[in-house]
Amino acid sequence: MQLILASSSKHRRELLRRLGVPFKTVSPNVDETPERGEAPSNLTMRLGLAKAQAVAGRRPGCIVIASDQVAAHSGRILGKPGTQANAVAMLESLSGRTVTFFTSLVVANADTGRTHRHVDETRVFFRRLDKEEIRRYVALEKPLDCAGAIKSEGRGVLLLRRIETQDPTALIGLPLIRLGAMLRAEGVGLLVEGG
Length: 195
Fold this sequence. Notes:
195 residues; Maf protein; elongated
């Protein structure tokens, strides 16, 4: 069965390439607006499921991989900054604080309807940051499309004291350890010659 990544995220595409399996990408075109009072973990799972279902419904004979990420501090969803000014303001407010990243993973078999679901929680501990290093980081990394304005796969790690996670790839946007288990459960051969 063909694998489809239900995402337009370059970060997720790069992560999935690490597994060495062929796949295609399809943008799911899902409204990502949070519902009033929606908890971050519920939001990320709802969006992950919506993305998987949107693509699986259009692509029979495929296994669809979908993911979503929500960053939260003190129960407040942070979102993606979108502009450099917003990224600077967001990081100034997170200096010395802890942010939890909720990353959903959904694997849906379009033929059988079977769906595997998981939400990874990664806690990120920011060190105290000064305004100039925040400004330089944002100018260099341009984390405008990243939840919480942090790119841990780049210089963003320099802003942190530590990370608590079960899967370091979850923070980048796609939990590969859990994904491997889900794909094996669907009969996808991993670590095979030529793959």
